[in-house]
Amino acid sequence: MSGISSFNEGDKVNQFVLIKSVTKGTTSTGKPFLTLILQDRTGEIDAKLWDCSEQDIVDYAADKIVKIHGEITLYRGKKQLRLHAIRLTNEQDNIKKSSLIMSAPVSIEDMVESITKYVFEIKNPNLQRLTRALLKKHHEAFFEFPAAVRNHHEFMSGLAYHVVSMLKLAESVAKLYPSLDTDLLYSGIILHDMGKVIELSGPTATSYTLEGKLLGHITIMVNEIGDMARQLELDGEELVILQHIVLSHHSKPEWGSPKPPLIKEAEIIHMLDNLDAKMNMMDRALEKVKPGEFTERLFALDQRALYRPKTISISSQMQPERN
Amino acid sequence: MSGISSFNEGDKVNQFVLIKSVTKGTTSTGKPFLTLILQDRTGEIDAKLWDCSEQDIVDYAADKIVKIHGEITLYRGKKQLRLHAIRLTNEQDNIKKSSLIMSAPVSIEDMVESITKYVFEIKNPNLQRLTRALLKKHHEAFFEFPAAVRNHHEFMSGLAYHVVSMLKLAESVAKLYPSLDTDLLYSGIILHDMGKVIELSGPTATSYTLEGKLLGHITIMVNEIGDMARQLELDGEELVILQHIVLSHHSKPEWGSPKPPLIKEAEIIHMLDNLDAKMNMMDRALEKVKPGEFTERLFALDQRALYRPKTISISSQMQPERN
Amino acid sequence: MSGISSFNEGDKVNQFVLIKSVTKGTTSTGKPFLTLILQDRTGEIDAKLWDCSEQDIVDYAADKIVKIHGEITLYRGKKQLRLHAIRLTNEQDNIKKSSLIMSAPVSIEDMVESITKYVFEIKNPNLQRLTRALLKKHHEAFFEFPAAVRNHHEFMSGLAYHVVSMLKLAESVAKLYPSLDTDLLYSGIILHDMGKVIELSGPTATSYTLEGKLLGHITIMVNEIGDMARQLELDGEELVILQHIVLSHHSKPEWGSPKPPLIKEAEIIHMLDNLDAKMNMMDRALEKVKPGEFTERLFALDQRALYRPKTISISSQMQPERN
Amino acid sequence: MSGISSFNEGDKVNQFVLIKSVTKGTTSTGKPFLTLILQDRTGEIDAKLWDCSEQDIVDYAADKIVKIHGEITLYRGKKQLRLHAIRLTNEQDNIKKSSLIMSAPVSIEDMVESITKYVFEIKNPNLQRLTRALLKKHHEAFFEFPAAVRNHHEFMSGLAYHVVSMLKLAESVAKLYPSLDTDLLYSGIILHDMGKVIELSGPTATSYTLEGKLLGHITIMVNEIGDMARQLELDGEELVILQHIVLSHHSKPEWGSPKPPLIKEAEIIHMLDNLDAKMNMMDRALEKVKPGEFTERLFALDQRALYRPKTISISSQMQPERN
Amino acid sequence: MSGISSFNEGDKVNQFVLIKSVTKGTTSTGKPFLTLILQDRTGEIDAKLWDCSEQDIVDYAADKIVKIHGEITLYRGKKQLRLHAIRLTNEQDNIKKSSLIMSAPVSIEDMVESITKYVFEIKNPNLQRLTRALLKKHHEAFFEFPAAVRNHHEFMSGLAYHVVSMLKLAESVAKLYPSLDTDLLYSGIILHDMGKVIELSGPTATSYTLEGKLLGHITIMVNEIGDMARQLELDGEELVILQHIVLSHHSKPEWGSPKPPLIKEAEIIHMLDNLDAKMNMMDRALEKVKPGEFTERLFALDQRALYRPKTISISSQMQPERN
Amino acid sequence: MSGISSFNEGDKVNQFVLIKSVTKGTTSTGKPFLTLILQDRTGEIDAKLWDCSEQDIVDYAADKIVKIHGEITLYRGKKQLRLHAIRLTNEQDNIKKSSLIMSAPVSIEDMVESITKYVFEIKNPNLQRLTRALLKKHHEAFFEFPAAVRNHHEFMSGLAYHVVSMLKLAESVAKLYPSLDTDLLYSGIILHDMGKVIELSGPTATSYTLEGKLLGHITIMVNEIGDMARQLELDGEELVILQHIVLSHHSKPEWGSPKPPLIKEAEIIHMLDNLDAKMNMMDRALEKVKPGEFTERLFALDQRALYRPKTISISSQMQPERN
Asked: What is this model's ipTM?
């Protein structure tokens, strides 16, 4: 696929991009310039707009679509776009924002269908009713939000995509270990990260809300479960257990869970969450390098640089599903 | 004050005590015996009841009051009661359980009055209404529960006593640092540990409930605030801040707070909580030793053994208020 | 299933057991006694043999089968057997050691077949030849040894049982994430713990060998791979990668891996190893308690005590396969 | 108050400032330039002097007062002064260094008076004589030095200001907890940081001395107490305790105290020190942002960014006392 | 050498020993008994004196010499003496305390001579005068005290023996690395642990003094150097450096040094201290086991159990010098 | 010695240097430039080549020798070379690469002789044969490779130089502690870091190989020992011990040793390794500063900045041997 992620030093660029963020600066000689982060659905790149006018500062704001013309250079080992020309889109361009945003490799409709299937398999009536009610309450955001601001599944619909992957994993694992309770697994997985629809600001240009910063998605979601249970007048030990599963899914206090998993299914959900998140991070880092090379150091993998073997073909996780 | 805490090796004992807990054991030769933890309002002591009958096992259960006769011995450096005789109380004894339980050095009435005074000083209407409503909902338990199972304020009404001490401290500190917001301080202090009325089982023979073990008092109380705000239809940033104060009052993830204090008053409440708890632990440990001696190692003070100076008189914190 | 694991306080016992270990002691009055750890295929229990004769000390040695008669008592909250009578087995008893040893819930033949199937699916000829050669070299021990001295899969054939479970898991996971290389997964899983056949002393009464203590199973196995590759005159990057997978499968230096996983499949093998081990530990701890109870604190799960929910039925992992 | 701390991007600047420090550099084209840190009593700002002459390098040295003319720009998100003109002060300017230095919000005379009052309340004659003698020995520096090079109370007379605040806090706390010994509290607080008059180089342009780097203020002060006690021929357990209070006031080895507090008053002094230091840091960080904003990340508060609530007015700690 | 360290289970014992410490206990049936720690110059052993009389309690106190008759038994895997008879020594026995105390393998005279030689090699007059003066001030204790209460060199004259070993090591190392300053090495080594003569209570039955507990030998010795320098009216950077060497010789804050070594010779002294201490610990632990065995877990070596190789002869460090 | 290490700001430079590494960059205005790291035998320095041509990029590659003409400037406190002219060497220049590379202060012949001497002193035939065979196998690389990429002994022949220093140290220490086994010490020291000849890429422009990154020199060398023992058909406990010594010489898991030293000689080798490495680092850092100054912060010494005393002469470790 062509686009930002496939640019190499020296390439000429001529395409539409979305401005993800803008920072204004001043050169040492006092002239204003803009640092733009530009994105298309394959990735993002930095660009400087030197000697910019007052009008430029107004025009080239975050979330605007622009046509750019320029060349790829290297700055401190990182690719950068040297701008030769930039202009705003107009109607004739007929370009849509959605075509410039990275999003999950499956459609929202397919994910709704998948999740609905698992909800129906929850046999405990309390757990099923609660999960359905919360899915309904946050339906739109749940299927559009990313799973994070960075690190893993930080693309549109990333949250739902991550949940669908975990549900499939859980189904496979439960077949191998029949002592696992699938009601707790499925309801726990669907709800574990749903608090992000309140913790984060939205599906694009995502940042943390005040509630996100002061309470965090775990605390927010434990509250949502408690509140919804009272509204639906549900009662029973399984509701406290479900709150516990959400509360403990980061596993350790220093990772944000004040209680470690004390229920078997809580421990398993933590592990599957970790597995799916790491798989996503590793695949995306390895796609960017050639066989025989190491990736850049990955913050969320303890600064490890992974090696992509020469002799063994790695096909992208996402490609098969993209078509 | 005479009683268990003042016993020395060799003392003869003849008094009423409350059975705090009982464990059944078997000697190496196969005979049953009971290990009793006995308490009066000054402290507790272990005792063994050897060669006990089936009836003894029925009679001498937790929460029963008994008359004992025996002698104090040392076992591995710890005082123990050697029982010569034991019997259940009867009506003629006319002994009340409350006279055998350690409790706060001020009356419940006085504490209700103190806390009410601080509630009235909360000027923000949302914070005042919410604090009053939650105090009312949990009134009885709040004034009877201990603040903990062990370590500090683990006596009847210890929770309210701890809150009153912190409120007085906060009032003093706010006078010295006028930038502090007393509305947040007072409402935060009153609510910070209120979740213990659900986390713990009751005012005596206290243990952890299932909710206490799976969610913890911090998460429980953040939920209670959210729920009550919705019931009262209150809204505003200060309610999220109040939840944050409760959430962060243990200061660090590894101490149970998923978010560290991000509001100045949250940081101060954490510090005052710590100061009052440590003062209580230190005073009680130092009361048990003579000037020129070290206390036993104190678990909650990082295993430190404190020194009680010779030349400097330490009067008990509690004595002045007891009269 | 009746047997040691199902004993309760007060039960009369009359059965054959295997002596797992013996320690000689002396009472405070100078008389010798034996502390025996006795086992059958369901579990183990401590027993004291008081006033034992010189002959008793000779007779009741580790790995001997004895008939015992006694009663279950509680000592410091732990079940203990009070011996009324003990004798060595004789020919008429017709009791076999294998009937008293806990072992994997599937037969060795079935495990050989499973593993052979996965070996055949390894397409890279170097990896397949090497894996076959090492399986052949250590065949007998590999299918009889436990996976550990304690904590998880510490029963006869535990090593192979653990490997089979991981292979099945890997197959499921690779279906969901097609970018995974199954050659590396299958060869890595089969070899990752094979060094235990040198680190440990044998299938029963297992302890650590000198090589186990000074080098450890990870270093031992990396050597075995290097040595076998030279013997078979194999060469190629994938052999270094396979050594790396074994070297890094404990993930962190402080857990015994001098290099962290730097290959995607190495990271996944670490996670599946962890998942299968914890599942085994959790299932066995939860089987010992009733719904609504907490397990004892589990050392290998960071001292957590797990809760077994009331409302949700947990069937044993092993039962379905035992029939 | 106008001055450096209130500058915004684009502001024209024309005022006197003190040069806090200077670093000489060379541009990539080989021309010399100066990086100046300029301060007035409200704050500090960086400025570059490009194309500077040999004379400029001589003139614009640390601790010189200059008149500057320029404009505020942003460089990597940080305010910087772009210099249009700079000159040294002359007599006609009639500007005093003290008017350009940030200092405590109360006068030295008032602080001398406050501390003298607390010295008189020390009843133990050894502690009083020793405290007076050390205050006399280091009088001038004690009332002029900052409490630190950065982080908290890093302004002129910051050391004494911090001590006065702690003494007032200690007085309040001792009223609430009458078991505290005020003699130890007052003498310990006055002396705890006095070693900084040897550890640091002076009241302005403060850096660490060789003794400061090799021994540190805690070790220096414990020595000073021991030495003065011998000069005054004082003797008694309370002198060792006072040395212990100074030694342990950072609480943990990793924070610089080889012994943790083993005396109740030592623990309390540590806590009050911490409370006053954090209050100072938090107030100064919050003053720089508007309600509804977060502060920058604060190094000395574990990199936390604090939130300044919208609805709650925060008045500066210092304003009330400044008048 | 015969004596306590060479006893095996079942041995009959009949010899003089020194009572190192006594603890009084009471049996569960209320009878008093004594737990004695008995020592001779080869080691120590526990013994119980059952059914002891009032006179026994008076007679068998710490530091008394007694003749014992008994037998070695095993209790929880540890050797213990079962007493058949015990009596106090009388004049006819003609037994001296010094013959029952473990002490350094070289005489005090030899150690005085060794250390004097190194003092004369210190060329810097300030360092030499200071070192001589402090050696003179603490002469007697310095050559009699142990280096510690436990772990290493915890025998009579252990402190001086440890210093002599380190001086010899330093001399060898300085020959290989001529950039090392021997003046700092020799004076630093002689003084580094001298504070132990104040930190510890005496050469036998050693415990910590109040100054030891509240200040520690490092702080004590830094004070001693400062004080002596002032008495001798010495001045110069090298005195601060010498204090720094003592202050930093435990290397890390969590090991008791508030400053890490910032001088090359300080770092080397830390390393030689560590090397000599570990060599002493390892030799003594390995002497107690046979070739092919592991030692017990050694607390001061991070709980490691060391292996004594079969094929390689280990001769005791001390034997050559003992003759 | 003149050369790069003795340059000061403002110096004119005109000499031959070796290009250690090159990075290509682009200025903000889009023009290519080269960042060169240049070295001679005394040190290295950065230089920028602005406005470079296509030919320049081809010519000035790593490992090329060039004649440079320029001037020393300061950039962010670090010395940098401003290039006035640069050209490749030609035959007439008659300059050898070896004259521009820093290498050990003794000749390879001398080091071969030293190490051979110690090999002959190994009395155990297995250890001697194995050590000789491995020295022979890796002879050339062993005497040319550095000991590391940075931090200590990162110069040509640094590996052998480090081994010779440790052998001399071990000989001295074994004289003072006769219980040490010199066979284990000498063979262990010679082999401990030999795996670096496979972990690193070569004697100059050194980087890590794939085996180095995935396995590390410790694992590689343990394999080499096992493999050579099998080739030589050697057998015996001492070979496992030798592998253990290599495996454990980094002492702690987090420093790369999966097993801590469990043999006395392993512990001593770890300590001598540490001592020689730190001595090398400290000497080289101190040589760069004047008496009375602190060095830069040293990464491998926990970021400490060391002080070079004024009054005490520090002669370079290397000078005496250089002549």
From this structure: 0.86
